[in-house]
Q: What sequence folds into this?
């Protein structure tokens, strides 16, 4: 049986030590550098489906500031994030014992920080500052947390090369320093069987589709760095930058295309089978515009196993929805969702609550794939 296998990157192909380190460095750039961001707080956000550090950093900073300002109001704070950070650090008398995070529902087409802003959360932060902190969190020009985070992930030199902006401070790339491969040679060999068609399927930033020869400014090659690290640079990749490139051509918000949207999985399925990223994205966009599958989708086998290996629920929702679209169109798709926990109890609990079979390590996942 043909198997099309969609592989998340962070927590699946790589242990994302770089993003965690960059997240902590970003938060400590704005707050007391001695304040410890406990791993449990980050895992709780992931359990709720908030898995991107681009979302975590403004939300955690908002929770930190909201706690301080609820006890020590500073109504004349500047609305600029870095200026406000300097003033809060100057006048605060105590730091939070822990960070309280409200329940933020996941809204399709909207980033969690913006959802939190529209819901009125973190109301102790003055509205202008709150808006600057929680909205436009994917814009390196508009979001100071995102801009600082990208310095740490890419390193100052690559930050300037990617965004054509001067570096605000000097740092090495935390992705290169701290990320670790989750794959062994044996696992890579198992993923290379003749009837296996893998593709990476991630919300990480990336370059445009591989068929586009010249990358415009702003496309950070973070997903490509991960595939290089795990020696899978040859497999198709549908990452955020590729969705963003298509979205820019059609005046779309790329947040509406990324998982948990079925668009992301549909494009990844086609890319895995055809090996063509740009063709796959165009075909997925035809589905978005018309609700129908064009001739490119009919290059797929009539029957196949559609498998996703994920460490959070966003990609699983995307693949389940894409499988239903394909089955409704007459394909015979067996959708198999696999949770990879790496021994994390909170992730295992979230998977079990969603009726997702989960496993602690890649050796167990390979055994399931071969069934």
A:
């Amino acid at each position: 049986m043909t198997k099309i296998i969609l592989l998340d990157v962070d927590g699946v192909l790589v242990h994302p030590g770089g993003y965690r380190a960059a997240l902590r460095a970003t938060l400590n750039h704005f707050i007391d550098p001695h304040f410890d961001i406990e791993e449990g707080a980050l895992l709780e956000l992931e359990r709720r489906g908030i898995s991107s550090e681009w979302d975590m950093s403004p939300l955690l900073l908002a929770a930190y500031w909201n706690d301080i300002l609820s006890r020590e109001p500073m109504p004349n704070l500047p609305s600029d994030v870095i200026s406000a950070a300097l003033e809060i650090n100057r006048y605060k008398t105590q730091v939070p014992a822990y960070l309280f995070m409200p329940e933020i529902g996941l809204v399709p087409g909207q980033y969690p920080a913006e959802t939190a802003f529209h819901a009125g959360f973190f109301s102790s932060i003055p509205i202008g500052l709150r808006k600057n902190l929680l909205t436009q969190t994917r814009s390196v020009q508009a979001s100071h947390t995102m801009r600082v985070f990208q310095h740490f992930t890419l390193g100052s030199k690559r930050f300037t090369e990617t965004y054509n902006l001067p570096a605000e401070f000097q740092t090495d790339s935390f992705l290169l320093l701290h990320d670790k491969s989750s794959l062994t040679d044996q696992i890579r060999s198992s993923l290379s069987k003749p009837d296996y068609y893998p593709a990476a399927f991630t919300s990480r930033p990336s370059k445009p589709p591989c068929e586009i020869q010249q990358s415009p400014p702003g496309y950070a090659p973070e997903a490509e760095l991960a595939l290089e690290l795990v020696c899978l640079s040859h497999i198709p990749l549908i990452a955020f930058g590729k969705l963003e490139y298509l979205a820019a051509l059609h005046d779309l918000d790329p947040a509406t295309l990324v998982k948990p949207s079925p668009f992301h999985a549909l494009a990844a399925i086609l890319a895995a089978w055809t090996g063509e990223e740009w063709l796959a994205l165009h075909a997925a966009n035809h589905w978005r515009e018309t609700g129908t599958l064009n001739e490119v989708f009919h290059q797929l086998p009539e029957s196949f196993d559609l498998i996703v290996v994920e460490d959070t629920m966003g990609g699983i929702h995307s693949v389940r929805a894409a499988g239903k679209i394909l089955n409704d169109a007459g394909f015979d798709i067996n959708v198999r969702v696999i949770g990879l926990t790496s021994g994390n109890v909170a992730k295992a609990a979230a998977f079990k609550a969603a009726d997702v079979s989960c496993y602690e390590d890649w050796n167990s996942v390979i055994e399931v794939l071969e069934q």
